[in-house]
Amino acid sequence: MSLDSDTEADILENVEEVMDNLLKELQDLYSYRDLFFENHPIDLATEKNKLVEEKKDVLVEKFESIDADTQIPEALRAKFLYMKGRCYNISPTYDARATQCLSKAVKLCPALIDAWNELGESYWKNMNVKEAKSSFEGALKHERNRLSLRCLSIILRQENSDKKRSEAHTAIMKSVDLAKEAVSQDIKDGVSWSVLGNAYLCQFFMVAQDPATLKLCMSAYKQASLDPIAKGQPDLYYNKGIALKYSEIYDEALFNFEYASRLDPPWQPPKQERMRLVTFLNAAHSLVKTRGKLKAKKLATMVQ
């Protein structure tokens, strides 16, 4: 028997059906994570990652029971490796197995945009911003797509966060443009709206503190909250809280910081921002109550 015959004999029976079933389970896994708070009480927030990991482990076992090199035909191999890498990549922390699978997938099929984007997400989790950016740009070489666009929008802001306003201006405005383009790809995608809101918020701080920019920011967050996936993400409420704080709508800002904390209890920034705002409001209340009759040293301590 020839080598080719041996290889063909190893191919899974009904391989396309197997792939379809794996894809359906992978989609269900991501829906379980992304729509967790649509189907579970917020009190289960501390259990969310553990519950997702348990479901992931079951699916990982199915993927790992298949040898991509011998049991999956070459025409389907890149898609299989992409799916396997995406399964690994659902975890909030970096998994080197995801990078390995996804790197192979894009080498086998450079036009597989989903694999490029997933590879970018994987590198990003490992704090490898350079390779993440390269991956998203790799996807855009084949097709303008909202995921690559919005991720590059975020990366541009990250790369310029420590620069002076004059130096960061061009990059921040490009970040806004990329986020706008991402929204235009699918106006119902709340995650893209959330990224656009964040881009406007960054523009407010890094370019010019124009109240009109904050209004655009709040409008984007409002659109984001219409999407069940976006409205389950704590960063939407945290960033919205920041925008509300600088809009001087303090009661809603406090609510959003609190809600962000409830969605992701271990995440500290919402708790810290809420505490700072409460301290500021208490200081302001004391000033009003005493008509400002406070010593300068005491006042400075209260508002720090």
UniProtKB/TrEMBL annotation:
InterPro entries: TPR-like_helical_dom_sf (IPR011990), TPR_rpt (IPR019734). The keyword Thylakoid does not apply. Signal peptide: none annotated. Keywords: TPR repeat. Coiled coil: none annotated. PROSITE patterns: TPR. TPR repeats lie at residues 113-146. This is SFRICE_005506. The lineage of its organism: Eukaryota, Metazoa, Ecdysozoa, Arthropoda, Hexapoda.
